[in-house]
Each structure stands twice: as C-alpha cells, then as structure tokens.
Amino acid sequence: MAHIWPIGGGKGGSGKSFLASSLGRLLAKSGKQTLLIDLDLGAANLHTMVDVPYPEKCFSDFVTKKIPNLENAILETPFPNLFLISGAHDSLDIANLPYEQKIKTLQAIGKLKYDYIILDLGAGTAFNTIDFFLASHNGIFITTPEPTSIENVYRLMRAIYLRRIRHFFSANDFKALGRKVKEHLGDDSRHQPENIVPIIKKEFPEKYALIKKDFNAFCFKLVLNQVRKQDNAALGEQICKFIKKHLGINVDFAGNISYDEHVHDAICQRVCFLDRYPHTRAANDLRVLNRTMSNAFGEQMMLNYL
Amino acid sequence: MEKDFDRMNYYEMLDIERNATAAQIRAAYNAALQMYQPDSMVSYSFFSRDEREKILTLLDKAYFTLINEAQRTRYDGELDPSAISESGEKSAAVKKPVNIFEINRQQLNSPARKIQNAELKAKIAQNPLIQEIMARQEISGADLKAMRTGLGVAIEKIQQETKIRLDYLHDIEEGKTDKLPAAVFLKGFVRAYLKSLCIEPADAISVRYIDALQRKN
Ligand SMILES: Nc1ncnc2c1ncn2[C@@H]1O[C@H](COP(=O)(O)OP(=O)(O)OP(=O)(O)O)[C@@H](O)[C@H]1O
Ligand SMILES: [Mg+2]
Predict the structure, then answer these.
(1) ipTM associated with this complex
(2) pLDDT at residue A23, rounded to an integer
(3) Which of A24, A54, A248, B190 has a CA-to-CA distance to A176 between 20 and 30 Å?
(4) Residues B127 and B37 in one domain
C-alpha cells in the first residue's frame, strides 16, 4: 500500500499546494512513483504548480461518475514518475462531498498502485478536509510563523481531534456524552476536545482507552513555511511541545522552509521552483524536509476508514 | 492524554526533572514564559484570557517555590512523603543562594551589548531629568517610566532582556502593588529593570522604590 501524506493547514495561502507539489517533485525525482491529488475541491489549483495548465479530466468527473474509476482520472505531468489527479471543475460544487462519496473515494485511493500519494487539502475545517486528513496516520500540518496561521492550525487540530472522538461513539452515546459535558462544564464553557477527553475518561472509560490507543498510532508532522531570518527558529519545536502538553496529540516537528521571493517568481512563471531555483535556501530546506519525512514515516500506511 | 495543567506538579509544569538544578529551573521558567505570555505566538489564540491567567499564576507559584531551597524541600515532602530523607541530597544542587533575576547574564556581556551600555550611560549622564530623579529619596513607578522613556528604551526590550512578564513591568511602572508579586520578588524585578537600563546603583534605587510604595499604602 502507498504511503499517504495528507497536507492540511487551516489557513489559506500557508503553502499547502507549494509543499505538496515540491514533495511530489522530490519523491518522483528519487524514482518513486508519486501521485498528487488535489482535494482542495473549492479552489483547486495544484495543476498549475506542476505544469498541467489544461487538465482535461479531474476528480469531480469521478464523483459525478463521468469517469467510472479513479484510476482513469489520473493525468501525466511533464515530470517523470509524477502524476496528478486534478481537483474540481469550477462549475461543480462538490466542496461538501457526501459521506458515502468520501468513503468511496478513500477506498479508491487505497487501491491505487503508487509508492507515495500526496493529498493537497483545502483551507478551513470542513469535514472534507478533516476526513481526508485522517485518511492516513501521517498527516502533515503546515503553517506560517504568524499568529493568524497558527490560530487556524490549532483550530484544525482540535477539529480533527473532535472528529476522531466522534468516530468512537454511536449517535446515541454521543448525545449522552453531550449531556455529560454540559453537566461537567456548564453551558457556556468552551467545549474543546482537551476539556471533553477527561470527561470521557471518567464517564466512558472503555471508550477512553480506545481513543487513547487510536491517537497514539498517529504520527502527525508539522512544517513551518515562509520562515524569515528574524523569526524564532525554535517556534516549530515549541508548538509541538505545547500541543503534546495541552492537547495530548503527538506532532513531530519536521522542519522550517525559508521564505524566498523566488517561490513567487517560479509560480508566476509556472515552472517548478525546485528545478528553476535549486540553489536557494528554500529549495535546500525542501530537500532536507523530504529526507526527514521519508525516513520518519514507517513503511506501511494504513487507511483508517477501510 | 496529558493531565490538566492544574493537576500537574510543579516539576511537570516546568518540564524539568525532580533533581533539576537552580539554573535548569530558571531556564525552564524562561522557556515557559516564552510559551505562555499573552504575546507568545505559541499559545496566543489557544487559551481564553482566564485560562492563560490561571496558567501564568501557577507557573509563578511553581517557579518561586522550586527556586527557594527551603520551600522546595517542603514541597518535595508534600509531593512524595516517603522521599523526605532523600531531600537533603536532592537540594545539594541548590546550595548557594541564587540570584533568580539575572537571567541573561551572557547576553548582557556581549560586545554589542557593551556598546549599548556605554551609550545608555552617556545618555544618563547627559539627561538632567534622569539625574534629578536618581537623586530623589522617593522613587515612583512614574519616575521609572520617565527614566526609561527618557532613554528611549521600549518596555518590550526590557521584557526581552529580563524575561519579566510584560504585565508585571507595566504594573511596576504604574505602581499597582496589589497586582504585583510579593515584595521579595518585586525588589528583584525592579533591580533587573534598572540594570537593563544601566541605571546604578540599582540596589539602592530599587529599595527607594519599594519603600515609597510601602509608605503609599
Ligand atoms: N517558502 C515560501 N517563500 C515565499 N513565498 C511562499 C513560500 N511558500 C508559499 N509562498 C507563497 O504563498 C502563496 C500561497 O501558497 P500555496 O498556494 O501553496 O498556499 P495554499 O496553502 O495551497 O493556499 P490555498 O489554501 O489558497 O490553496 C504562493 O503563491 C507563494 O507565492
Ligand atoms: Mg492550495
């Protein structure tokens, strides 16, 4: 089964697509069969970053059954070993995929024969984003060192956490949990997962054990993008330590990517940044990051929903 | 799943080992302040105002307890009654009284910093208002602020250097004693504040500040 790397970030413009295309390029270059899937269904644009200006078919054709199976939606890119499933047509609003469609998609992704599959996800905390992010144990969070971007990545982490907790409850049990939460925390307190989990521990201990085990299997990563010279280089490590302490989620810091004007230049020229500006600091950061991540993630990736 | 912050013991709060040295405790406290202060990028937006206030208060308590040899021994005893006999051994690391506020000593001695210090001293010597304030018997928070602004130093700069919480620094300048930490700590804070502005004798001036405050109340 392929290694699946979902990339999510909460905030728009943090560099999800840039990271997805760059990692894809590096993996492909090292001989790995690599597939990029643009799941930013409301604002697909990954094709532009891998020089596929006119995708003649896309993911939404699979959803509308115009294309019978996902494999047929795969496009070649100009780069050897690198393939793409482009996002949605503008005309079709599938930003909110029904649950069955999502499961179907995830199962179809699981059957694709690639070494690496990278999922470029939309901004925000829509169920689409969260469910695709949870499709693998190796989700990658990306943020810039700005309070707004960090705020959104925390929101995404909490949303993912809650969604995963929900997974362990039947509709009825979940209602019961809701009542318990109200009892313990009152109506107007902030119902954050970190406050809810202690209540689960107390009221539903067997579920707590399952959730804990489940979360320990995850091996999330954090990437800090657009890091400038004057920024605190230790910020990423601090965030991971903080999240471990206060949310109880394991997130490993994978590395910084420097801010570099050439990224903008490359995107405007619609050429691959790594090929056009291989000797920049940001390009070097990306290569280091790719090495770190390829080593850190285990061999076998499991799809949670299968 | 981690424990609630308020259920952690002081060592867990500061992320240190039970046998941490004073220097380690101080470093851990600084690192924690960097994470939990209102302007910290790490925790900004994660907590409500009340949650943050609670955590900062707990951190202060943890720090001031552990950095004080006698209080630490007592606290260790409460934590782990069976270990009292060992506590003598444990506190061997904290034999000498430590100055808890001279945090960035190295930074203060760097070449760049030496030039800055010389400039500050020159400014102090040439500024009649500062000279006049320094000669006063009673020194108020407003006086401290007047000297700082006279030297053109931002309060954030002092915060960076001394690692004293920004809200404490503001309280010191506004003379809001009720919000300030206990007198022992306060004197250390004021002294560190003055040192970072190169205003000497920092000891004597901080005493005059504290005395004036106490008289006011
Ligand atoms: N390391 C970097 N240095 C400089 N600029 C960068 C860097 N990374 C990204 N950018 C800039 O940020 C812009 C947004 O990047 P990207 O499209 O990858 O973000 P995104 O997270 O996918 O956004 P969206 O949520 O809108 O899809 C890029 O067009 C580029 O100009
Ligand atoms: Mg994008």
Answers:
(1) 0.83
(2) 97
(3) A248
(4) no
Nearest CA in chain A to B45: A151
What does the pLDDT read at residue A235?
A: 95
**Do B2 and A246 lie within an 8 Å CB cutoff?**
yes
Residues B56 and B147 in one domain: no
pLDDT(A200) > 90: yes
Rounded Cα distance between A292 and B184, Å, is: 48
Domain assignment present for residue B97? The answer is no
Q: Which residues surround ligand 2, an ion (CB under 5 A)?
A: A 16-17, 40
Contact B46 A145 (CB under 8 A): no
Give CA angle at B49 (B191, B44), nearest 5°. 80
The predicted structure's pLDDT at residue B4? 76
> pLDDT under 70 in chain B at which residues?
1-3, 81-110, 181, 183-184
Residues in A closer than 8 angstroms to B2, CB to CB, are 244-248
Strand pairing partners for A224?
A143, A256
CA angle B106, B108, B110 (to 5 degrees): 70
**A213, two tokens:** 């085990």
Would you list the DSSP string of B30-69? HHHHHHHSTT-TTTTTTS-HHHHHHHHHHHHHHHHHHTSH
Residue B88 lies in a domain: no
Report whether pLDDT(A72) > 70.
Answer: yes
If you measure CA to CA, which chain A residue comes closest to B39?
A147
| CB contact (8 A) between residue B1 and residue A145 | no
The answer to whether position B99 is within a domain reads: no
CATH 3.40.640.10 is right for the domain spanning A3-153+218-305 = no
Q: Ligand 1, from A18, A48, A228, A285: best to mutate by most atoms within 8 Å of Cβ?
A: A18
For residue A306, what pLDDT is reported? 42
The predicted model scores a pTM of 0.76
Select from B76, B80, B34 the least CA-distant residue to B59.
Answer: B34
A212, B34: Cβ pair inside 8 Å? no
Query: Between these two residues, A191 and A198, which has the higher pLDDT value?
Result: A198
Nearest residue of A to residue B13 by CA position?
A: A245
Nearest CB to A145 within list B15, B41, B48: B41
